[in-house]
Amino acid sequence: MTADAPAAQVLRTLGADAPEASPSCAPHVMLIFGASGDLTKRLLVPALYNLACDGLLSKGFALLGTAMDALTTESFRARMSEDIKAFHTRGEFEQDVWDDLVSRFHYVQGGFSDLGVFETLKGEVKRLDAEYAAEGNVLFYFATAPRFFGLLCDNLHQSGFKDGDGWKRIIVEKPFGTDLASALKLNEDVLANWREDQIYRVDHYLGKETVQNLLAFRFSNGMFEPLWNKNYIDNIQFNVSEAVDVGGRAGYYDSSGVLRDMMQNHMFQMLAYLCMEVPGSFAPDAIRNEKAKLLESVRAYSAEEVERFVVRGQYGPSVDDKGNPLKPGYREEKDVNPASKTETYAAARLHIDNWRWEGVPIYLRSGKALWKRGTEIIVEFKKAPEVLFRGTAVPALNANRLIFHIQPYQGIEIQFQAKIPGPTMRLQPVNMKFAYGDAFKASRYTGYEVMLYACSHGDATLFSRGDLVEAAWRVAQPIMDHWAETPAEFPNYARGSWGPKAAADLVAKDGRRWHEVVTEEVLRKVPLFKDGDMVFLEQVIMALRSKQVAAGELIIRKGELGQELYLLARGKVEVLSDTGQVLKVLSDGDIFGEIGVLMSKPRTADVRARRACDLFVLQRADFSRILRDNPHIAAAIQQIAKERYKLNIITAALLAPD
Ligand code: BG6
Asked: How do residues 433-447 score in pLDDT, each as one tens digit?
């Protein structure tokens, strides 16, 4: 693709679509500190390559990499040419585009504290500026450990990098500080010789299309903004689940934890976008003012409030049937202190003390080594009054939900209830979904394209201003302080689970529960559901409720009239005889409680959690309704009943309305 090719569909930020704006990045020399590291090869270079493929990289662009590694321009280019094959995100590799791009790459070896090296770099930047006609513009990218940020700013200043024509801008990677004091100090160091408008603090979540779309969704649609407040919204949930563990990053992670690593930055950014006031315009500072104001309204907790509203967790090992470890717990991971108190999971209920949100619980949770990868924001509206439905077959109304699926599935979903076709008034939860894949043909991006592009145009919308970073630390600091002072009972959740039960209890205290986003893929792992068609699976998904139980807890009591069927997502339960003998052990993917429910008979045995369990619960009324629509599944249940329990369930009982 050449520079004349149409611009990428997803890279239209403030400048790109304006008629007078250049469609490509502004010309510049990009000087990367830490160019031999992971970030450069995994994200920065693939992002530059995407920009080049979409004709969005200026002809006046050159890259100068520097690091301690003994590389030359030739060996740096060779290394990048190898790495790009593994890390590019496009369907097909465009060799000619890459050849042109990599020919613009240069390298200087050196240490960050050596002013002599900065003299060499300055000479190189000047030479490249002349060779590529970069108009004196220089973008400094700090892809280094944070301890170098202040030093680099200082040395760039001392070496006279700010002199001359053109703009000079610095992109700083996260983490920006490790607590409030260090963030304040870092802001002071960075701003000692540079202006705030020259500093671009990266939060890669702001590069995600689905995150940027939060603003587009809220402010370009007239439908929701009038409802966007405490009068109509019951609660908001932010969920960032990661299936990955700390991997090889424990050296960094063990002194960080999920509060610093995910919440204080990525999650607070999403929170700010979702809950901020309407800005006066789309100008960068208009948006950044509102974001900072929002985070300043988040209540900083007292120690007692941290106890009440925040939960931490750390993953333990996953174990086989006999209890032998399969994969290590966090404390057994390489480079982790065996007595580590670092949290790999956190859940919080935050309060936004302003007119719009006062009293609306804002729930956040994030963790590593969880059951799935998925980032979602769930906005739950207040329920409609049920009074109208009294005397009808409608048992209870569900709340409407608006779900932003951030990743890996990208889309927006609205959940509501609809009348089930038929002669009586019966309701079923249904949904409407917008999927990115159905609406756009955009290529997959790393998220860094838009950052580099916007920075070259001086558009700081997608970067954090100093006051926002400080406001975020002000919220996180009391939590960190309280945790540092109090013992932690770790590990408290198993790898592959939904997280600690305390997180479920946190929300249950308010009479609510976490909304688990279940996919068809997950349901198909259950033998009973595996052949279900899309309509069936969607019906089940909409009806499932999540429940976590602790080891030893009784889930079903003999003699009770059962109203629930359980799907064991993860864990182990045992079915007990009258004398307490274990009759049967069920594990991941099994269902139980179905017979009592379907036959409207008292439960025939106790069922107890042998290990902590994550369960999905299906109410009898919902299950019968779904089976009425899916007679082949009803037949499968009859079969299971026959084989497992020697029971003949008559179809009428199975399908009877409650
Ligand atoms: C990084 C964190 O900032 O974000 C990682 O340091 C985390 O621990 C990652 O895994 C998550 O990013 P994404 O884009 O995969 O959600």
From this structure: 999 988 887 667 888
Does any ligand 1 atom lie closer than 6 A to the CB of residue 242? yes
Local confidence band at 376 (pLDDT 50, 70, 90 cut-offs): very high
Residue 325 CA to ligand 1 center (angstroms) comes to 26
Dihedral over Cα of 280, 282, 284, 289: its sign: positive
Whole-angstrom distance, CA of residue 238 vs CA of residue 403: 10
3-state secondary structure 486-503: CCCCCCCEECCECCCHHH
| Catalytic residue (one of 266, 405, 482, 515) | 266
CATH (residue range 7-173): 3.40.50.720
The superfamily CATH assigns to domain 520-655 is Jelly Rolls (2.60.120.10)
Catalytic (active site) residue 266: yes
Give me the residue spans of the domains in the chain: 7-173, 207-508, 520-655
CA distance 588 to 119: 62
pLDDT digits (tens, 9 = 90+) for 65-95: 999 999 999 999 999 999 999 999 998 999 9
What is the CATH class of 207-508?
A: alpha beta
Q: How many angstroms separate the alpha carbon of residue 395 from the centre of ligand 1?
A: 42
pLDDT at 657: 57
Q: Is the CB of 261 under 6 A from ligand 1?
A: yes
Place of tokens 């079903």: 556
Q: Whose CA is nearest to atom 6 of ligand 1?
A: 261
Q: What is the DSSP letter of 41?
A: I
